[in-house]
Amino acid sequence: MYALVDVHKRYGLRTVALRRLNLEIRTGEFFVLYGPAGAGKSTILNLLAGLTKPTTGDVRRNGQSIVHVPPERRDAAMAFENYALYSHLSVAENLAFPLRAAGLPKAEIETRVNRIAGVLGIPHVLHRRPGFLSGGQRQRVALGRAIIRPADIYLLDEPIGHLDAKLRHRMRAELKALAVEMKATIVFTTTSSKEALALADRIGILNAGRLEQVGTPAELYNAPANTFVASFIGDPPMSFLSVTARPDDMAAALYTADGQRIGTAPASAVGLTGLQVGIRSNAIQMVEPGAAGTLAGRVEVVEHLGHSNIAVISTGKDELQVSTEAEIRLRPGETVGLQIDPAKLHLFSGGAAFADAAPARNVA
Amino acid sequence: MARITANRLLKRYGNFQAVHGIDFDIADGEFVAILGPSGCGKSSTMRMIAGLESITEGQILFDGTPVNDVRARDRNVAMSFENYALYAPITVYENIAFPLRSAGKDQAEIDRAVRAVAEKMELTPLLGLKPGRLSSGQAQRVGLARALVRKPAVFLLDEPISHLDTRQRYRMRRFIKSIHQEFGHTMIYVTHDQEEALALADRVMVMSDGAIQQLATPPEVYSRPANAFVAGFVGEPPINFFDFSDADETGLTIEGNRVSLTDPLRARVRELGPVGLAAIRPHFMRLGAGSPVQLQGRGFITEELQDHNEIFVDIGSVRVSLIAPPGVKVARNETVTISVDPDHLLLFPADVKVKEHSDDL
Q1: pLDDT tens-place values along chain A, 364 residues long
Q2: Which residue of A has its CA nearest to B225?
Q3: Which helix (H) or strand (E) is B127 found in, with range?
């Protein structure tokens, strides 16, 4: 197990990369760091690898500080977005390098190189030098060189970020299968919601040097701690409507700005300002405008994504993203009705999940 | 604003021909995405439209007038490239105002134009900041605002959002689309990302190997791809391909599975002959029996994406993916039956190139 304890990391005088961050990486887990560019994802990998030291705080392995252990003695295997391969060696020799260094027998090395090349879809380029590879192939070789040898922890910094969509899709499945098989401890960074959900045992959502929430994909998807997490997990992202809570025989009822009742809440929500409900696109049904109990909205833009369309619908103050079947044709400017499933609302107060929001889920 | 026409447009670099004499006609005010893998000729095409690249043969016309010999800066083309070079020492306001100042506009007009575009791009609160203080998404919006402020005839965008996180990508798409709806420019968007192309464009021009493979609306390129390349490049998750063989009136064979055919597919087989390529999108396959087109496979892995699952299954030597509701899973090496919706089974001539990944040389 690895831990960052109260880690503060500053570069120079002004740039704060991590702020009092606490994080545990459990042995054998696939941990995904997910967040916008500049959130601090790579800094965490560098701290775990020993390439940089915390300004204050501690980095521990199995409870013991490793801050002063140099990178070459940490048994961490790394793959970076900007991959450095040995240009004078073939792909096979690049892959074999860490195994030779570990003194493995030749036959064993060959077996492993062939196996990893198969997983990464590069057996046909094993004899080539890196200079004769495409960017995506080089990135896969770099990933292969990291995962080919046993290591205590694998640190993978957007290792499939430069691949085309088809390869990325395929590599995602291969990597997950391999991780399960190896029972490896992996820390993986990404800017893709889908990649995070598909790969992770647990996800840490990082924003401006702070962890917003750590949890399983299901926890983050079903119970986001705040609106940042809610809008970051899921594709398309969650939409938000401003609401007010008024007393009601169900404790409290939630009303939109134009007076439409869309759900219920605990009595303690009454009178709070800054209430928002978060709604995923699959919790919204498009219906005839004007139907009872529905919100009126105006179609702003429509995206045709092939299997489905995503419409951005304005309700006046807020905008909602709604998935529809591809056959449903909508035009910008059109008025539509929106039926929102009250059981699928997420209530937030001042940006944080409303502590007692659970009752909002089961009463219409 | 302008209509953009290409006649037998060809680009050669030394002995290498990047664009093979293509024709297209982009209507005034239309939004066209040029989509393809790296090296397909999309950037060369865009650079010829912009005037940054000479035209080897053929013509580009703006509103019917050839512009081959018109210099880039005289074409009134705005460009926004992935690396927005904002001027660091001056404010966002002055960055946006820059093209208007260079054009010698008067102060009142500049102020009006800058504030109008800033309002549209949600940049008003940032006008006083220097670029160093901006997030990458904000910097991109400033770059777009600067390009838009001088009311160009055509607006060219080159992969401006491919590196953003999921949430930012949706926001930027929303912006770009509303810019188009609001200002009505002819817009040409160059990308390798099929989702962006489909989401943004009125029509998608799919390119590969220096040629246009299809130029059609997003629903058309998705549902009626002109060839196997388009089928493979458009759609997320990617379409599944199989070689088929022994095709005749009674059916065809996919990875050892004999399947029967519907009438339209039978007609297609008569055109194609006994061997070819079958393709089916992950959304049109499901676990379980019940279709005339059934395939036997072994489970590989299940990805739980929360609102749906994506399941990978090995059918013979082919790994396929399919979309399933949450809760439906396969175990590794579990034997499974897959039903294919025959109405969405696509058949193409045998073509080895399509199975290669675009970054495989």
Answers
A1: 999 999 999 998 888 999 999 999 999 999 999 998 889 999 999 999 999 999 999 999 999 999 999 998 999 999 876 667 899 999 999 999 999 988 999 999 999 999 999 989 899 999 999 999 988 888 899 999 999 999 999 999 999 888 888 889 999 999 999 999 999 999 999 999 999 999 999 999 999 999 999 999 999 999 999 999 999 998 888 999 999 999 988 789 999 988 889 999 999 999 899 999 999 998 999 998 888 888 999 999 999 999 999 999 999 889 999 999 988 889 999 999 999 999 999 999 999 999 754 444 433 3
A2: A306
A3: none
CB contact under 8 A, B199 and A310: yes
How far, in Å, CA of B354 to CA of B352, rounded?
Answer: 6
Cβ atoms of residues B300 and B315 within 8 Å: no
- The answer to whether residues A136 and A253 belong to one domain is no
Question: Residue A203: which CATH number?
Answer: 3.40.50.300
In chain A, the number of structural domains is 2
Q: Judged by CB atoms within 8 Å, which residues 306-325 of B form the interface with A?
A: 306-307, 310, 312, 319, 321
Contacts of A358 (CB under 8 A, 6+ apart): none
Element holding B186 (H helix, E strand): strand B186-191
3-state SS, residue B315: strand
Rounded Cα gap, residues A7 and A160, in angstroms: 28
CA angle at residue B186 from B183 to B187, to 5 degrees? 95
DSSP state, residue B191: E
State whether A75 and A187 are in the same domain: yes
Residues B153 and B75: their CA atoms lie apart, in Å, by 8
Which of B198, B281, B359 is the closest to A163 by Cβ? B359
CB-based burial of residue B132 (10 Å sphere; 0-12 exposed, 13-18 middle, 19+ buried)?
exposed
A21 and A142 assigned to the same domain = yes
Position A358 in a domain? no
> Which residues in A lie closer than 8 A to residue B359 (C-beta atoms)?
134-137, 163-164, 167
